[in-house]
Amino acid sequence: MNKERFEKGMEVRRAVVGSEYVDRAIQNTDDFNSPLQELVTEYCWGEVWTRPGLSRNIRSLINLAMLTALNRPHELKVHIRGALNNGCTKEEIREVLLQATIYCGVPAGVESFRIAQEVFKEEQQN
């Protein structure tokens, strides 16, 4: 493991999805899944998310489209919050989800809109 890349990844990961979420993930780490946590933090967050080619908000919007396409509701919820943390607007998120609905299918889009509304409601209460 590259310690510097891991630390950069942890910094970006916390900034995007929130320290509370990251802390829960780390607390649930054991001998079995610790290599996965290291891999995700070092390569996903430390290598790719730190690249200069795209802004964090663009990366977030791309993630929303991909997670809709893959029908990954748990990760979608996390990344909708991340998109908001990265400065994406509800309107931008809506437009990405509409675009994904056309290319990924109505059931995937309906589920993604449902999840987004849930996140927006939760964020409003905080």
Q: What can you see in these coordinates?
A:
This protein is an all-alpha fold and 126 residues long. It folds into 2 domains: 1-51, no CATH class; 54-126, AhpD-like (Up-down Bundle). 81% of the residues lie in helices and 0% in strands. It contains 7 helices and no strands. Helix 4 (56-70) runs parallel beside helix 6 (90-104), helix 5 (73-85) crosses helix 7 (106-125) and helix 6 runs antiparallel to helix 7 (106-125). The protein is globular.
How many β-strands, per DSSP?
A: 0
Task: Indicate the mean pLDDT.
Answer: 96
Shape: globular
Largest sheet: none
CATH superfamily of the largest domain: AhpD-like
Query: What CATH architecture label of the largest domain applies?
Result: Up-down Bundle
Total helices: the number is 7
Strand fraction equals: under 5%
Pfam families: CMD
Protein name: 4-carboxymuconolactone decarboxylase
InterPro entries: 4CMD/NDH-1_regulator, AhpD-like, CMD-like, Decarb_PcaC
Organism: Effusibacillus dendaii
